[in-house]
């Protein structure tokens, strides 16, 4: 009798599918994935893969990005209701109004946005390349950065550019406080604090390293330290344990959990492979505009 993992492996071969999983996914999902990574790494994989079906274990904006970059493939999002708190449809109206108010500005959209917003932007960015994207824009151009004001201010600090940053943000990361970091430092003296740029600026000021999920893993792998305080979503602990055997990782707070990232289950992955549903299909008139902003981003190294 086949167990569920064997069934997924068999269906994956039959469907010529690839499983991509974000580093915030549950451990059992990261274990069955062909590729794990941050938003940038997974977009690059989605653009390159020669599989016929992409099973995206993550949230909707990631699956939409895969479909925009590889429209000829079937893109499946096993957890169809997995969204991101920054992913709101009202954003399109706000971007339209901002475009009218700043007709000459360059609009940078964080990838955590609906495809329709990417279609209205000039260039996208992820948490790993926000500063590189901003630095690529000519100095004399006004920049509107949306919707994550915390990532925007991080890119400002790194590049020395001033932008019109919106005030959106990720509730998981914004909940982290200065007191959390001080308590973690007191509990684990000497352990470097590795943090995601979606955290608020005063909290970020207390970090030793700020970067995307992949950046955090890379930093921990290369560091001489043996204990680390991790200030991002708890799913990353799985990859850290895999990549850094013998090192210890302590979450900066018990509340670093994204419920949407935890909606994927092995059963949903299996059923998606069986039925080729639920699919994510970005309408062609939106896709052909959104692909420009995403392709420009992919041309810029993280
Ligand atoms: P990464 O760019 O590190 O993958 O982050 C995506 C995200 O949703 C962070 O909350
Ligand atoms: Fe969105 Fe935050 Fe969840 Fe990332 S952790 S998917 S930014 S809600």
UniProtKB/TrEMBL annotation:
Cofactor: [4Fe-4S] cluster
Keywords: 4Fe-4S, Iron, Iron-sulfur, Metal-binding, Pyridine nucleotide biosynthesis, Transferase
Entry EC no(s): 2.5.1.72
Gene Ontology MF term list: 4 iron, 4 sulfur cluster binding; metal ion binding; quinolinate synthetase A activity
Residue stretches spanning the membrane: none
Root EC class: transferase
Database matches in InterPro entries: NadA (IPR003473), NadA_sf (IPR036094)
Pathway annotation: Cofactor biosynthesis; NAD(+) biosynthesis; quinolinate from iminoaspartate: step 1/1
One matching Pfam family: NadA
Biological process annotations from GO: 'de novo' NAD+ biosynthetic process from L-aspartate
Protein name according to UniProt: Quinolinate synthase
Species in which this protein is naturally found: Selenomonas bovis
Gene name per UniProt: nadA
